[in-house]
Amino acid sequence: MEAFSKTLFLNELKKLNASTDRQIIIHKIVDSTSTDLMRRVRIGSAGAEAVVITDIQTAGRGRRGNTWISSDPDSLYISLAVTVTGKPSKTLPMVPLSAGIAAVYALQDQKFTKARLKWPNDVLVNDKKLGGILCETPNLQAKPLLAIVGLGLNLGTCDLPADTAGNAVSMASLAKSVIKKETIAAAWISKMDQRSTNIAQIVDKWQRCAEPFGRRVKIGDITATTLGLNNLGQLLIKKDDGDVISIPGGIVENLI
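-> structure tokens emitted (256 positions)
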């Protein structure tokens, strides 16, 4: 195991012409990068474009309070504070979509082309979860509005927990060579810095990065076929009774 190197991370950012003029907090171990960054934003000790990275999380979180296993020090656990402009009801849902696009683009830059997005927040390879994204807001009334975007990617060689082995995958088991977490972190930050503010463009890019639509899925007690995203970034599905509806959130289970 090698601890996350701030020097290497800064060098990688410079190579990509990405801003190094940001607050960078690096831990060996922390409860959660997003929780830590949320605390800092709330007390005013961190602002826009601040980054928190750790080698290990003791209380990593996914959507809807799910636990994100974060005990592999060679994997990537990172959170970024981003400014949300425009009407929050329209622009805030674009932040996790942009983070997913940035993750796929960052992986593609490392010649890792198999990564795909599963709505709303998963990074997949061959239908197995390589990573996940969590977007939260410390204060919806704050001006400017900040969103905390967390990204976790399974990069290392540690065995995945037995209860996730059938659904998760590590990059180390797929790539021909080891890709350093500092490199992926810098690439993701660079892509987030370059993210579009055009909603239609974000939705289009996300769909181009997504797993194929037309899949049979189950969302709650609904079984349906995926059609794509609407202009709000919500999932469009065709129910078995023929009705087409949009889903603003939820756990999407692929049936086939």
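The CA atoms of residues 27 and 54 lie 5 Å apart.
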